[in-house]
Amino acid sequence: MRDGDHHLVVDIGGTNTRVAWADGASVLRDTIQRFRNADHTGIAPILESYLQGEKINGAVCLDMAGPVQNNRGTLTNLDWEVSRENVTAATGASHVCVLNDLQAQGYAVPHLGQSSLSHIIPASGTLPAQAASLVVNVGTGLNAAQVFHLDGRTLVPPAEAGHISLTAITDRERRFVDWLENAHPQPGMEDALSGRGFERIYAWLAEQSNCPAKSASEIMQSAKSDPIADDAIRMFCTFMGRYAGDLALITVPAGGVFLCGGVAGHFQPYLASHGFIDAFRAKGRFSNFMDQFPVSLIIDDYAALTGCAAHLCEILQHR
Q: Between β-strands 68-69 and 72-74, what pairing exists: parallel, antiparallel or unpaired?
């Protein structure tokens, strides 16, 4: 058992859950354990297994892949309910808070070092202190969160920004949206800008050439030899850049735009060469305005745990 200065942080994904101890805002990397969700009936057995049946003196912060309200949520892809009450019962913690997984990424942003980031559009100078930031998650789903700072506190309001309407600018994109709408009425951005969205883009392009559809992994593996795959990657990167740029105009994130998520990570080699940067900046007479916003990819697999630790640290300091 750790002493009262150490707290438990938990990152509940769609497939795996990571649990670790944190000292203040720092995750103790040697304490991280990974659990397969399919092997457990809920979060309580995982916590009990990690703690080996003991109770803790400190606090717990969890983030989860699903909407959260009042420290209670249900996983999007599993019938798990996570709440302050069931976590307290499993751990004996003195304080419990539950976050959406993208909120945790937002709370991590002020604590990420250069080794945790890959720069897509480098900063042109020193970033303003306490400036707003924007986190964009592209993975199994799509979402974004704004990060604000006020009176020594980091604020990351929840959002469901992946479900805004899918917009098309070119005639070609409009044909794709029309095709997509036949199967998915009123398509949102997530219907094109996610893992399954990437597969839909390829399927639409392949259909025009009487070629079979492919899985996302097959598309990426054939990118150098299959012109349809290269075209699908370019179209996907363009949608991603435009989406991030639109949200940047809403947020004005002088502190930077941070991409995260498994799908965004897979596209890292193509973001600079396949249209992301041009689409991010293509805002008509506001194109020059976009130059002030650096864009980075979060490459730290444990960033959400860091966000939980940082948020918990702030909460306990202001109690």
A: antiparallel
User: Rounded distance, CA 4 to CA 311, Å?
Assistant: 17
Residue 143, strand partner residues = 137
For residue 267 the two structure tokens come to: 């596209």
- Which of 235, 232, 237 lies closest to 214 in space, CA to CA? 232
DSSP state of 250: H
CA dist 102 and 105 (Å) reads 5
pTM of the model: 0.91
Phi-psi region of 152 (alpha: psi -120 to 50; beta: other; left: phi over 0): left
Confidence of residue 3 (pLDDT cuts 50, 70, 90): low
Question: Residue type at 184?
Answer: H
pLDDT, position 2: 59
180-185 CB contacts, 8 Å cutoff, 24+ apart? 180/204
Q: Which pLDDT belongs to residue 151? A: 83
C-alpha neighbours within 13 Å on the C-beta side of residue 18 = 21
Instruction: Answer for the pair 296, 119: CB distance below 8 angstroms, yes or no.
Output: yes
**What is the distance of C-alpha 80 from the center of its chain?**
20
**Of the candidates 67, 95, 93, the residue with the CA atom closest to the CA atom of residue 82:** 67
Q: What are phi and psi of 210, to 5 degrees?
A: 55, 40
